[in-house]
Write a structure and sequence with these properties.
The complex is a heterodimer of chains A (154) and B (392).
Chain A (H helix, E strand, L loop, with lengths): L1 H21 L5 E5 L10 H8 L13 E4 L4 H12 L3 H12 L8 E2 L3 H10 L3 E5 L9 E6 L10
Parallel strand pairs in A: 2-3, 2-4
Antiparallel strand pairs in A: 1-4, 1-5
Chain B lengths: L2 H23 L4 E15 L5 E2 L20 E11 L2 E10 L9 E9 L5 E9 L22 H4 L6 E13 L2 E12 L2 E4 L2 E4 L4 E11 L2 E11 L7 H6 L2 H7 L5 E13 L2 E12 L6 E11 L4 E13 L11 H6 L4 E14 L2 E12 L7 E2 L9 E11 L1
The chains are: A alpha/beta (154), B mainly beta (392).
Chain lengths: 154, 392
């Protein structure tokens, strides 16, 4: 009986881990200020900007990424859809770069209003939102999780 | 005065002056403070030898649980003067060459990035002998409890006073990055009860790196010209001059070439590293080292398995003295491999627990990366490590 309980417990843990890892990510839109003059970024460009590999926009302007760090579910889905990485992996990645004196992590917006203000006031700023947060003050430059093309986290 | 130090004297004050003047021009100077730490307990299966994390440590892991080898704390301040100019200072307290935890300044530089393509840094910089070697004290940034010692352990160099210049540009659908660096070491390395003074040793090197999708590859070459001999002058004086001259390392070069490949796709991360060390003297042995590590994320857990190896060969001397120089050269020999198995558990944000077993198998004459070898040392040993890694 004890053995069976142990086996059930193990099964429950494995299922819990599996289910946790398999939660489908909700769609995320990558946005810029409408005055930025850009209307499209590629997935590769967004990866390079948010992971600090190469922060230059197609118009040669320096790119400034902005994270929605207070909205954990949104940030989790963004990185899962972009590079299929968990929040812990993203933190480990930035620990490596920050403590070897390399690129800074993205700026942190407190909320949607703060993000919109940063996009408007920071040339080259790039951020992300949920589709229902879209307004005329934002321009979508890339959609993630919309079922268009291959996406690692879906 | 070497070329590197002359360059440093000219360039660093200019950047520092610029850094000091910037606050007058900009209203907001952004200061951020961060840190990282590792609390790790480790022990070995027997006390026949003490494997070290790297050659900067005077003693290694014993058959009693100890926090010594891998526990450390680091603090870092970033001062941003403008989007293009930043100063960084980092100090680490860890088990070091003199057996103390005296904190050392490991990074202290001014970085200037006029655009996303170019970056110039001058001051004290972490060494980039191999891929990931400039972050090898930041346990939270990798999955194993320590970077594989067979690969990174032969490096007693952690930082140099000098400068580096990096350029990044899109190329053939990916990103191409190149970096040149140079500087002088200010470090010491334990040598028995004595010290090998690395202060003034010149390091010059560069790498080319390419990112394409999930793949990152880097080729690095670094040359080190030692400023001083090993603290064995009395021994060298007993040898014929021609023989001693072949063994002295002062003003001789050691060359480090390496290839690093990281494939990072979703939950699976694969790392492959290979290095070749070549020496212009008969002391440190020409060495092949490498490792392959597989990490697979399952929820908050990341189990991993890795295999590392190191094998060196003594140089043929033109003027050997049988029974003397061969015994001397044998002190610098490595010939073993390590199977490492473990897991990382990200149990809460910015904290990770790790457990790892190292199965070291090799030849009894593999002693360069070990201390206090006894006649019982047979080249095989198991290590057990538990660690807590944090960033804050």
């Amino acid at each position: 009986m004890e053995r069976r309980t142990g086996a059930h417990l193990l099964l429950a843990i494995v299922l819990a881990i599996g289910v946790g890892a398999a939660r489908a990510a909700e769609p995320v839109l990558v946005v810029m200020d409408p005055a930025s003059g850009l209307d499209r970024l590629t997935r590769e460009q967004v990866i390079n900007i948010f992971l600090g590999r190469f922060r230059r926009l197609p118009n040669a302007q320096a790119a400034v990424p902005i994270d929605r760090s207070r909205d954990e579910a949104l940030m989790t889905d963004f990185y899962r859809l972009l590079v299929d990485k968990s929040p812990a992996e993203i933190r480990a990645y930035w620990a490596r770069l920050v403590f070897s004196g390399k690129t800074e992590p993205p700026q942190k917006a407190h909320d949607l209003d703060d993000m919109i203000e940063r996009l408007a006031n920071t040339p080259g700023a790039v951020a992300y939102i949920r589709p229902d947060e879209l307004s005329e003050r934002l321009r979508v430059v890339l959609g993630l999780g919309l079922g268009l093309g291959p996406e690692p986290g879906r | 005065m070497s070329i590197a130090s002359r360059t440093r004297v000219l360039v660093t004050p200019g950047l520092l002056c610029a850094a000091l003047l910037m606050p007058l021009q900009t209203a907001a100077v952004d200061l951020s403070l961060h840190g990282f730490g590792t609390l790790a307990a480790s022990r070995s299966s027997d006390g026949s030898a003490e494997p070290v994390r790297d050659l900067s440590q005077p003693s290694g892991i014993t058959d009693a649980w100890s926090l010594t080898s891998d526990s450390l704390i680091g603090l870092q301040g970033n001062l941003r003067f403008s989007p293009t100019l930043e100063a960084v200072v980092q100090g680490i307290s860890r088990y070091r060459y003199d057996g103390t935890y005296t904190p050392e300044i490991t990074w202290a530089f001014v970085g200037f990035s006029p655009d996303p393509v170019w970056t110039l840094r001058a001051g004290r910089l972490g060494t980039e002998f191999y891929m990931l070697s400039d972050s090898r004290w930041v346990g939270y940034s990798f999955n194993t409890v320590r970077p594989p010692s067979d690969y990174y352990g032969t490096l007693p160099f952690n930082y140099v006073d000098g400068m580096d210049l990096a350029v990044t540009h899109p190329f053939a659908g990916g990103l191409l990055k190149g970096k040149l660096f140079g500087g002088e070491s200010r470090e010491q390395s334990p040598f028995g009860d004595l010290r090998f003074d690395l202060d003034g040793s010149l390091l010059l090197g560069g790498y080319v790196e390419y990112y394409l999708g999930d793949l990152q590859a880097r080729i690095v070459h670094v040359g080190v010209r030692f400023a001083n001999d090993l603290p064995l002058d009395a021994f060298y004086r007993t040898l014929p001059a021609a023989t001693a001259n072949e063994l002295r390392v002062a003003d001789r070069w050691s060359q480090f070439s390496s290839l690093g490949i990281v494939h990072d796709r979703g939950p699976l991360q694969t790392q492959f590293m290979l290095s070749r060390t070549h020496n212009d003297h008969g002391t440190f042995q020409d060495t092949w080292a490498g490792y392959l590590a597989l990490n697979y994320r399952i929820g908050d857990w990341t189990p991993f398995i890795g295999l590392s190896m190191v094998k060196s060969e003594a140089k043929d001397l033109k003027h050997p003295i049988p029974g003397v120089t061969d015994l001397y050269q044998a002190d610098f020999h490595s010939d073993h491999r390590t199977l490492l198995i473990g897991t990382r558990w990200d149990f809460r944000p910015n904290m990770a627990l790790k457990a790892q077993v190292d199965l070291i198998r090799g030849s009894p004459d593999s002693i360069f990366l070990f201390r206090q070898e006894t006649p019982d040392w047979d080249g095989s040993m198991n290590l057990f490590t538990l660690s807590l890694d944090v960033v804050f």
